[in-house]
């Protein structure tokens, strides 16, 4: 039987056994579990969660006709509550045209350019964040995709290599904090396990909503490493790995985090 | 009760450009006392009747939940006129003034405030009979471990 | 474009105390920050919030830079009659946003 046929029948490609130090699946906890009661309350109440302001804006943008094609997201995708359900839970996803994975923001921009014939939205700009927040909100409560598309395996591995590689002037690897020392404190903050269940999220430190890549850049600056470019392969591959690492965990976008 | 969330957009209004205040040297307990004096004048402030609720430990000083309530029948004859909130070491001592009336039903308000560091927060309740009451609470504020560079 | 999220009951019994929650997008720039080059960043905050009930003011808040970004306010009012609640935020640089909600009181 050809490999393509096997993939069509949804046969799971089992990843190679995990390196030592990886968090056992049953011990994984989302960032929400490490937060104070007050910050959790802010996330739980949609009328108090500042991230919802971006979700509302995204909902408005969803229906707006843009570009040379004069087309709104809604014109092709209809009601996002139905059509976008599960989308954030399975991104980054393999894009056959590009031959590599794209994350949610890149997918939105592909539609902007190809279908709406409108200019790309800027990374970390308000519009792109609003649309990503609105789409991600439609996956709230759903588990992060478990099945690894065989075409994605190489990128999971590339992301894993980044996660375990020492970087920067502090010569730290992501795994040293987030696999080995999660739950302990770094300068008064509790170190979470680093699962991207709630992106894009409202970070109190930012006083605004931001993407996973922005958060990863914060970490890299903290490690005194040169942060990767937005949309760069290193980031998307790392996102692929982080989502694989968090497979089966529940999406809670738009989350609130300290 | 049928609750619903109500969503709207609005455009920015036209208007005057405000003058930016000159930045002060920074608040101190003395400056907070002066700010409180500006509100109460020479009247005494009695601890009690006001309940200030803030978490004892805050993960991030940018958004600390704060609730203040004053026990009062909220009648025309006996109600809370206002609650004033102050901080000890923020750059400015004033945080907010909330104005109530018998139409409020209860003198209780919740919001989120910025606290520059571990410090004491003071709430002053002003009653319709002209008396002032207070409560204070200390919040330990932790700062983010890794600061953000340029975006 | 400002976004406001208001949570208020659509219906209430006469005399009932209702809770109103408001959240509005605004940076609440304190005026204490500086750019990387050291230049001061001008204050830009919401300075006042007013709620009126069929035209009568029922709640007012004077805000200072210590109020967190994307100001969140929860307050209450007595449901007296059917009509309209309006919420107005005003501040620096001509900022002015008004939203309304209808309420039925039986």
The assigned structural class of chain B equals: mainly beta
Average of pLDDT of chain A: 91
The percent range for strand residues of chain B is: 35-45%
Shape of chain B: globular
CATH homologous superfamily placement of the domain at 71-144 in chain B = SoxY domain
What percent of residues of chain A are in strands? Answer: 5-15%
Cα gyration radius of chain A (Å):
18 Å
Q: What is the number of helices of chain B? A: 1
Number of domains of chain A: 1
Descriptive notes:
- The complex is a heterotrimer of chains A (258), B (151) and C (106).
- Chain A contains 11 helices and 7 strands.
- Chain A is mostly helical and 258 residues long.
- Chain A has a single domain, classed as Cytochrome Bc1 Complex, Chain D, domain 2, CATH 1.10.760.
- In chain A, the strands form 3 sheets. A 3-stranded mixed sheet of chain A has the order 6-5-7. In chain A, strands 1-2 form a two-stranded antiparallel sheet. In chain A, strands 3-4 form a two-stranded antiparallel sheet.
- In chain A, a hairpin with a 4-residue loop joins strand 1 and strand 2.
- In chain A, helix 8 (153-164) crosses helix 11.
- Chain A is globular, with a radius of gyration of 18 Å.
- Chain A starts with a helix and ends with a strand.
- Chain B has 151 residues and is mostly beta strands.
- Chain B has 1 helix and 10 strands; from the N terminus they run E-H-E-E-E-E-E-E-E-E-E.
- In chain B, strands 2, 4, 6, 7, 9 and 10 form a 6-stranded mixed sheet that branches. In chain B, strands 3-5-8 form a 3-stranded antiparallel sheet, with no helix packed on it.
- In chain B, a hairpin with a 4-residue loop joins strand 9 (119-127) and strand 10 (132-141).
- The longest helix of chain B has 12 residues, at 29-40.
- Chain B is globular.
- Chain C has 106 residues and is an all-beta fold.
- In chain C, strands 2-8-7-4-5 form a 5-stranded mixed sheet, with no helix packed on it. Chain C has a 3-stranded antiparallel sheet with strand order 1-3-6, with no helix packed on it.
- The radius of gyration of chain C is 16 Å and the shape is elongated.
- The N and C termini of chain C lie far apart (36 Å).
- Chains in contact: A-B, A-C, B-C.
- At the B-C interface, strand 1, strand 7 and strand 8 of B face strand 1, strand 2, strand 5, strand 6 and strand 8 of C.
- Strand 1 of chain B pairs antiparallel with strand 1 (2-9) of chain C, so a sheet runs across the interface.
């Amino acid at each position: 039987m050809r490999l393509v046929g096997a993939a069509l029948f949804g046969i799971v490609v089992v990843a190679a056994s995990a390196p030592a130090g990886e968090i056992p699946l049953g011990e994984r906890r989302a960032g929400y579990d490490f937060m104070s009661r007050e910050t959790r309350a802010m996330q739980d109440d949609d009328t108090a969660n500042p991230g919802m302001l971006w979700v509302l804006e995204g909902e408005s943008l969803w229906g707006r006709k843009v570009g040379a094609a004069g087309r709104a997201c809604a014109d092709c995708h209809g009601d996002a509550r139905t059509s976008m359900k599960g989308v954030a839970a399975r991104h980054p996803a393999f894009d056959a045209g590009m031959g590599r994975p794209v994350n949610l923001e890149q997918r939105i921009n592909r539609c902007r350019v190809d279908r709406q014939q409108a200019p790309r939205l800027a990374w970390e700009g308000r519009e792109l964040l609003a649309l990503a927040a609105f789409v991600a909100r439609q996956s709230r409560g759903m588990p992060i995709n478990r099945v690894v598309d065989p075409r994605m395996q190489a990128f999971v591995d590339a992301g894993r290599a980044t996660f375990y590689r020492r970087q920067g002037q502090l010569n730290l690897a992501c795994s040293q904090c987030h696999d080995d020392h999660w739950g302990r404190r770094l300068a008064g903050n509790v170190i979470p396990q680093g699962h991207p269940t709630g992106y894009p999220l409202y970070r109190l430190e930012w006083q605004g909503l931001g993407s996973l890549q922005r958060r990863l850049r914060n970490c890299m600056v903290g490690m005194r490493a040169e942060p990767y470019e937005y949309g760069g392969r290193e980031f998307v591959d790392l996102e692929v790995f982080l989502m694989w690492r968090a497979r089966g965990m529940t999406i809670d976008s738009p989350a609130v985090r300290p | 009760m049928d609750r619903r969330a109500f969503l709207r957009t609005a455009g920015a209004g036209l208007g005057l450009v405000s003058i930016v205040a000159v930045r002060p040297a920074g608040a101190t307990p003395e400056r907070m006392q002066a700010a409180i004096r500006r509100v109460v004048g020479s009247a005494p402030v009695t601890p009690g009747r006001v309940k200030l609720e803030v978490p004892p430990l805050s993960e991030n000083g940018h958004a600390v939940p704060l609730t203040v309530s004053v026990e009062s029948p909220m009648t025309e004859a006996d109600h809370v006129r206002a609650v004033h909130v102050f901080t000890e070491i923020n750059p400015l001592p004033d945080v907010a003034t909330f104005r109530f009336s018998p139409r409020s039903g209860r003198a209780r308000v919740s919001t989120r405030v910025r606290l520059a560091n571990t410090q004491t927060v003071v709430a002053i309740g002003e009653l319709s009979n002209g008396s002032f009451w207070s409560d204070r609470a200390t919040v330990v504020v932790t700062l983010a471990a890794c600061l953000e560079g340029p975006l | 474009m400002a976004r406001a999220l208001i949570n208020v009951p659509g219906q209430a019994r006469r005399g009932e105390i209702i809770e109103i929650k408001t959240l509005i997008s605004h940076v609440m720039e304190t005026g204490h920050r500086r750019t990387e080059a050291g230049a001061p960043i001008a204050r830009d905050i919401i300075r006042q919030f007013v709620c009126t009930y069929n035209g009568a003011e029922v709640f007012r808040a004077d805000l200072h830079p210590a109020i967190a970004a994307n100001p969140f306010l929860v307050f209450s009012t007595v449901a007296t009659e059917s009509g309209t609640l309006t919420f107005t935020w005003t501040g620096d640089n001509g900022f002015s946003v008004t939203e309304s909600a209808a309420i039925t009181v039986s």
